[in-house]
Amino acid sequence: MEKRKGSLLSFRPDIKVLDATLRDGGLCNNFAFSDEFARALYAMNLAAGVDYMEMGYKASRDLFDPAKFGKYKFCNEKDIQNIVGENKTAMKLSVMADVGRTDFRRDIGKKADSVIDMVRVACYIYEIPAAIEMIEYCHKMGYETCVNVMAVSKAKDEDIDDALNMLGQSPVDVIYMVDSYGSLYPEQVAELTKRYLAAGEKWGKSIGMHAHNNQQLAFGNTIEAASWGASLLDMTVNGMGRGAGNCASELLLGFLKNPKYRLAPVLRFVTDYMLPLREQGVRWGYDVPYLLTGRMNSHPSSAIAFLREGRTDYENFYNELCEKD
Amino acid sequence: MEKRKGSLLSFRPDIKVLDATLRDGGLCNNFAFSDEFARALYAMNLAAGVDYMEMGYKASRDLFDPAKFGKYKFCNEKDIQNIVGENKTAMKLSVMADVGRTDFRRDIGKKADSVIDMVRVACYIYEIPAAIEMIEYCHKMGYETCVNVMAVSKAKDEDIDDALNMLGQSPVDVIYMVDSYGSLYPEQVAELTKRYLAAGEKWGKSIGMHAHNNQQLAFGNTIEAASWGASLLDMTVNGMGRGAGNCASELLLGFLKNPKYRLAPVLRFVTDYMLPLREQGVRWGYDVPYLLTGRMNSHPSSAIAFLREGRTDYENFYNELCEKD
């Protein structure tokens, strides 16, 4: 029987944390972060000992109008360097590239010309071949690569095994479990992590966890995955992310025992930058409608629309969800 | 090796849920619930299939001024009957009696004269002998009895074993784990549940779980405890409870698979009664200061004071907490 790795008091040097605030948080405000915010976040992540900072998406300008989104939707090299300079630090930088929404041959150049260290390819499970094409390309360009297989709560075990086998034979470095709908319970996360880890150990890949907080389980599921061997853990400051948001940096860094992590800079950043965002009306975090889409294992878009309309008739919303499926 | 009980799809008939909204939620508003609120909550719990509803505390009028607290602090028989009538239903009613703050010989009469079914005795671990005196008294009066051993995260394993042995030999029906500070992680809850359950199986006692949401783990810890055999699970509507609050009824009833539970009445009650409470300024639920007291395994009182003062300087608060211990 598999055993948990490490104990609650020990730390595993293989565990690394990735701050996805600009990327997943950007989904809450169309990526309209100020330069001051991004620079302060970068400095804070450095001070907190964060291992990776995700700068945003590499979205295609043909599909998304740059006039309608902040720069972190596109992550042009000069915009990123304007924030991080040459990033001569121990912290690595990542961008996310969605399968089908990234013009990767045009927009992702050689690592030698970029401050970005890792490209995270996001795909649904039926897009694995397209993801592998991007992974191979980015690998050849010199980047670390990562694949985020989204909506894993909808996938069948046999498809997951198939996907893990295909990804195992690719040059990808990290394979992520992504609970896009915040529908997984910790027991399911444990089983899933064991399944991913078995493939990871066979093929020499690390396993990552990206959780959502629809059922107030983002933190619980993240540390559950970590305890069974996941080693790259996503978080966002104050849990900022689409809908119910993500595992909060302040929860995760408060839990991990690696002495290089520091909680105080995160706390100060919440006070100085996240509370003002909320005051400006940017919304994210647990709320009843997200619990309901999470429980129903469905996309949070209907809950986001419900809240945007100012509705509070949760029972009707629940009935609508039940009829849909 | 112990195994989890049941699966995520099955239901265990031994699992019962207890709504503690009037009691733990009352700590947020000095128990100033209107009769309309209490009656609607009672009707909602019945409609939702809830097994136990806690009406409040049996606090001593000598220690607490009835002019300063709502009636659910004292739970006089006539006040309760004014809400629930004779309660000729399948749902049982409970009250909580704090060791040292209840004049139990004066205020707790015979079960034959009361609509209350169960007395829950709350104590710290060093008060077990006093708790047993109350348990024996209430048992003789004809009540089901329950003991809530608070702040178990501060107790040593050997003291817990000692307490379980003493309680095992008492007439108490249910022994609760109470994570008063919201500081336990699921792995700890699993170990603790196994420890409590071993004693419970030896002495013929059920095990209960009362969680707090300081680290957004109240729901996760509750279902973790349930999976290892805890069978009486506390919840409050919308998680209303002291500080970061409790396991939310809407989360727990959305998870449990017993077909007798209904989620829709809870959702309607949140809309009709809990949102108005929040609009009136009653505060509860996860916030950064509670995460910090939870992580430090300390009482939330300092976090409650911090928020009441309108402070948001989390980093300073964290430094103050670190200095205290």
Q: Would you summarize the structure shown here?
A:
The structure is a homodimer of 325-residue chains. Chain A is of the alpha/beta class and 325 residues long.
Could you outline the blueprint of secondary structure elements for this entry?
Two copies of one chain form a homodimer.
Chain A: E1 16-19, H1 21-24, H2 26-29, H3 35-48, E2 52-57, H4 77-84, E3 92-98, H5 104-107, E4 118-123, H6 128-141, E5 144-149, H7 157-168, E6 174-178, H8 186-203, E7 206-210, H9 218-227, E8 232-235, H10 249-255, H11 264-279, H12 288-295, H13 301-308, H14 314-324
Parallel strand pairs in A: 1-2, 1-8, 2-3, 3-4, 4-5, 5-6, 6-7, 7-8
The two chains with the largest interface, and their residue counts, are: A-B, 43 and 43 residues
CATH architecture tag of the largest domain in chain A:
Alpha-Beta Barrel
Which class of the largest domain in chain A in CATH terms? Alpha Beta
Quaternary structure: homodimer
What fraction of the residues of chain A are assigned to beta strands by DSSP? 5-15%
What's the number of extended β-strand segments of chain A?
A: 8
Order of helices and strands of chain A: EHHHEHEHEHEHEHEHEHHHHH
Assign the structural class of chain A, choosing from mainly alpha, mainly beta, alpha/beta, alpha+beta, or little secondary structure: alpha/beta
